[in-house]
């Protein structure tokens, strides 16, 4: 471990260095974030997943910085350009921007106006101008400068006269200005503090670009521009509807650019040399520096916007994955449709497809009667306990149809968000599961399984297709995938996985496994039968002790040989549980689930350096409620009857809804009309809300007031405030 990195991360995150070091060593040894935060609390000082992930990411960033630093040092040494001062600067550079600024003057580059001027021997003239501007007194006169420049005239070198020689010298000074590390650092700070992001409509695009109307004449500070607006402007620019730029006060920028080249008489001093240098500084700023700085700041704005958008996506995805599961029930699921009918499937308690057909309740005449009879017959035949209906096209109409069938009151009827179901139905995963069924059957199965266990079903879909993001296709796709994979892994391991029923996709997110080992676990299960205890996992091909250590605590075996295998207690902690049981004079099986007996245990008595109080408290909580699902209890929900389309909404009406997406500017809410409404951040509560996540989350059930309905633009405005206005 690099001690400098450890100290830097500890200072940045305000974490004791020893804990950062311990976390870094665990990560370096192949431990995953969920494993470290759950089972290595003594080593890390009880750091949670957020802190462990932050340490991991910063270690990787600093490693990349060191890699670039080494490449730069090697390049400079090979070209004999390294000096002691330059080495000190490069070694001490704390950011990539500073490192690149130091390297910029020495970086191999294409031929520029300055390099051409140097090739023509004009560098000495540039130094003469700089010395004349910096020296005492008035400096050389215009005639003296012209005479000096005349000495550099060389037709063969394409320097036909004094004016061309001076122009070349100014080009050299301009490039020196643009490559000065101090100037770039100060200008970077100016852009970030005083820069303005400006957006204008492209000529002739007022009508075609109407969706970007808000940004036709827009300006706001770089430092406060929210990510969603930056991404919107970038998209408008990419689609050629907008022109976007980042600007700073030019007078202030020129003062900064001129400072290293200022004369002793001040930046406003007169004199022929000073005038030449001033022209060069202005050219260096306008032609080179302003372009380079704007590009850099735009990239920084995008990085911040990406980080913000990815954070929004990850939070929303977590809420969706951890939505309340109905559990193991017999489910009838319908994928609604008008002309093509509704595809209907029956699933048993394990989510196994038992029956499928199509019904046509919306075609009129006998179609509706026959469809109703089919549904009622299937409900009786398969002893259906719940009905899941997709919330897409014809969803509300299908819900009304089913509710009118006079089914047993005990049956739970739920509208299910079907975002991404079509992606699943056409995927390799779906084809492998149902090779003999068409897309519509697979989609209906996915809808039913989502009701039973959202997490187990949604892991089969690319998270980007689930529809809870904000500009997800515009952000850094590598960073997005990393964050979403982290989120899915966190959720899967927080809930735990039944190793005898889980799909390969679900198992692949278990700490320490991955796709290959997950497939190996399923293959072993298929050939050897269900696992009876966790130790049998070591018999799986290529699943060695390290993978077992990482995965075992997150895998559950219900009703197996070892009662602790159905809990989150890690096998490495079984001895301490057995010791507690012996001291209580009871078998381990009798201790599991006995909250009263566990409440009287003095945990300090069992603490060691390896198993401290944080782990012991986790063990006691897990034993009290073994295998407890951290997700909330399922509650049925229904929309307002008769409100099926936007035109049914009435201003001021209170309607039940489900939050489908939370962004930095508000929350989108499904109120059952096939068009989500938006509750702006100002309408989320009766108090000031800085972050929508403070008051709402994806999947939350709310009562919303209709404040506006724009049928032409397809927009619905909602409010969650109790007070109107």
Key attributes of the depicted protein:
725 residues; alpha+beta; Arc Repressor Mutant, subunit A; Tex N-terminal region-like; five-stranded antiparallel beta sheet
Straight-line distance between termini: 58 Å
Q: How many separate helices?
A: 29
Helix percentage range: 40-55%
Low-confidence stretches: 264-268
Q: Can you tell me the CATH superfamily of the domain at 113-313? A: Tex N-terminal region-like
Q: In this structure, how is the largest beta sheet organized?
A: 5 strands, mixed
Strand residues, percent: 5-15%
CATH class of the domain at 113-313: Mainly Alpha
CATH topology of the domain at 113-313: Tex N-terminal region-like
| Oligomer type | single chain
Q: What structural class is derived from the secondary structure elements?
A: alpha+beta
Task: Please tell me how large the radius of gyration is.
Answer: 33 Å
Can you give a write-up of this model?
There is one protein chain. The protein has 725 residues and is α+β, with helices and mostly antiparallel strands. Among the domains are: 3-106, RuvA domain 2-like (Arc Repressor Mutant, subunit A), CATH 1.10.10.650; 113-313, Orthogonal Bundle (Tex N-terminal region-like); 331-452, YqgF/RNase H-like domain (Nucleotidyltransferase, domain 5); 646-719, Nucleic acid-binding proteins (OB fold (Dihydrolipoamide Acetyltransferase, E2P)), CATH 2.40.50.140. The protein is 47% helix and 11% strand. Strands 6-5-4-7-8 form a 5-stranded mixed sheet, with helices on both faces. It has a 5-stranded antiparallel sheet with strand order 13-12-11-14-15. The model is unreliable at 264-268 (pLDDT under 50).
